[in-house]
Amino acid sequence: MSAARPGHSPDRVPSRSRLRSLRPTFPGLALAALLVVVLMPILALLLYGASTRWDRHWWPEGPTLRWMAEAALDPRVQAALLRTAVLALASAALALVCGAMATIPTAIAAQLDKLDAVDGAARTARLTQLLDLLALLPFAITPVVIAISALELFVGQWGGWLPLPLVYVAVVAPTLFPLVHKTLQSALAQLHAAALIEAGRTLGASDGHTLRRVLLPMLAPALLAAFLLAWVTAAMEFAIANLLLGGQLELLQPLMNSLRNADGHQAAALMVMTFAGVGAVVVAISRLSRRWT
């Protein structure tokens, strides 16, 4: 047995596991700080939308569901919600169809080129890089710039014969392409689509048959997740809806902004109900993905 150091008893020396348990974990602290930053505004909105007044003390007074009931029964809110849901569904559907037609063949061709080492690998790689660049453009160009450009082109020049809702869908759909592209690209990488195509060729099946009967059913959860994410993002769009549609077609986000100046409690209640709807969609995405996978 080794002798203890003078002045130090063995029971007073902290073990490494005890020191490790006392050491603060930076990922945990960062996550806690992020949760506080994200949840505090939502909690404040919930308290403000569920109280009679909040201007005399640090805490709200008079719990009530009056503002939420008024917001839910308001015909103006109902009309804006219906228009937002329909236009968001159309934008998400267009983004999903175009994004899937561009991403799925390109990603499969890139994986096949890596396996076969064919001469067209460089061309497929350039096409993949082009799609990745297009997926970054909506983050580089702000929605205000997109809305102003659409106003000048589609409304100013061709506004006489182009329906405004169609213009809105055509402008919003490209901004949703990154969600569809990245979701499907990751799903195809996890499925090893090239290996499935090669297996189908070995069994005598055509590439189109393997794509329709094997890959697309396996991609159904990813397609649904991409569609719902695109729908929620389109429904939460503010800048393009406010600048492009203006006062002709009032959508949900511009309506909440206008209510904020007229009735803050009702605007807060409507925002809380919107957050609840988005949360329900996220839960639905998670459960459907788990059921299908």
Describe what this molecule looks like in 3D.
The protein has 293 residues and is mainly α. It is built from 14 helices and 2 strands. The chain has a two-stranded antiparallel ribbon. Helix 4 packs across helix 11 and helix 11 (220-235) packs antiparallel against helix 14 (264-292).
Uncertain spans: 7-11
Proportion of residues in β-strands: under 5%
Q: What order do the SSEs take from the amino end to the carboxyl end, as H and E?
A: HHEEHHHHHHHHHHHH
Helical segment count: 14
Mean pLDDT: 80
Main sheet summary = 2 strands, antiparallel
**Category from helices, strands and their pairing:** mainly alpha
How many runs of DSSP E, i.e. beta strands? 2
Kindly, what is the distance between the CA atoms of the first and last residues, rounded to a whole number of angstroms? 57 Å
Give a brief outline of the structure.
By secondary structure, this protein is mainly α.
Task: Sum up the structure in keywords.
globular, mainly alpha, 2% strand, 14 helices, 2 strands, single chain
Mind sketching the topology for me?
Blueprint: H1 16-22, H2 26-49, E1 51-53, E2 61-63, H3 66-73, H4 75-116, H5 121-140, H6 143-157, H7 164-175, H8 177-191, H9 193-202, H10 207-218, H11 220-235, H12 239-245, H13 252-262, H14 264-292
Antiparallel strand pairs: 1-2
